[in-house]
């Protein structure tokens, strides 16, 4: 891991929350999204996960703290790197945030308020309590199935099992220790809510599906493979 830039230089508003942004070949869109994030949050930590394009350059010019994996390790590994770096910062809250524009900054602020009001360790964003724009029908079916699958395999009842917008406190950041490097980290995160005894709540959020984000999204075959890997992992651990 290489630290490329170490400060946000735009005008910041919220300084007790770090946005954690994994990125892989997002050079087309990342500057716009991170520039907006850096105008609202002092600490925006972007991990360029071995991109072959100019993602790191655009993230840095937007004002984010940029770290870079020399090779692509996967989204889970990028998030763990971001968490470990952000623990050095004087923040209370940590929020995972997508680089492709699907998430809204207003939702992060609202989730932060929910966490403070309810005094919970984690607030998970739910598109099914909130809303979506331009969501493919197949994606909706797949995510609904994932909710039932996650309920069955983890015992954690949620309305949206694979939403990348998650806000958590320093205790979670210090103890969660994600081991799944790829997209399976989403299931691992939920498993650790149960095994580590974290308190949690869900909050309504809006997910915006653009042509760009839909093109980069997971395929149904990949989602099935991830579910199979999750089952195998659970059986082996038992």
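Q: What amino acid sequence fits the structure above?
A:
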């Amino acid at each position: 891991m290489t630290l490329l830039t170490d400060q946000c230089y735009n005008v910041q508003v919220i300084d007790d929350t770090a946005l954690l942004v994994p990125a892989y070949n997002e050079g087309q869109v990342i500057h716009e999204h991170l520039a907006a994030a850096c105008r609202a949050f002092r600490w925006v930590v972007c991990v360029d996960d071995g991109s072959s394009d100019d993602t790191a350059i655009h993230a840095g010019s937007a004002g984010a703290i940029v770290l870079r994996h020399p090779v692509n390790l996967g989204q889970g590994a990028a998030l763990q790197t971001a968490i470990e770096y952000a623990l050095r910062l004087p923040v209370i809250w940590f929020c995972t945030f997508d680089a492709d524009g699907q998430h809204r900054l207003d939702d992060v602020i609202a989730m932060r308020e929910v966490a403070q009001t309810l005094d919970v360790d984690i607030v998970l964003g739910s598109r099914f309590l909130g809303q979506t724009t331009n969501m493919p029908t197949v994606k909706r079916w797949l995510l609904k199935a994932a909710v039932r699958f996650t309920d069955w395999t983890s015992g954690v009842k949620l309305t949206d099992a694979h939403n990348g917008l998650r806000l958590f406190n320093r205790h979670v950041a210090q103890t969660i220790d994600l081991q799944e490097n790829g997209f399976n980290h989403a299931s691992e995160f939920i498993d650790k809510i149960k095994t580590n005894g974290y308190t949690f709540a869900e909050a309504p959020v809006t997910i915006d599906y653009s042509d760009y984000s839909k093109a980069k999204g997971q395929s149904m075959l990949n989602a099935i493979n991830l579910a199979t890997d999750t089952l195998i992992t659970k059986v082996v651990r038992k």
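Q: And what stands out in the fold?
A: The chain has a mean pLDDT of 87.
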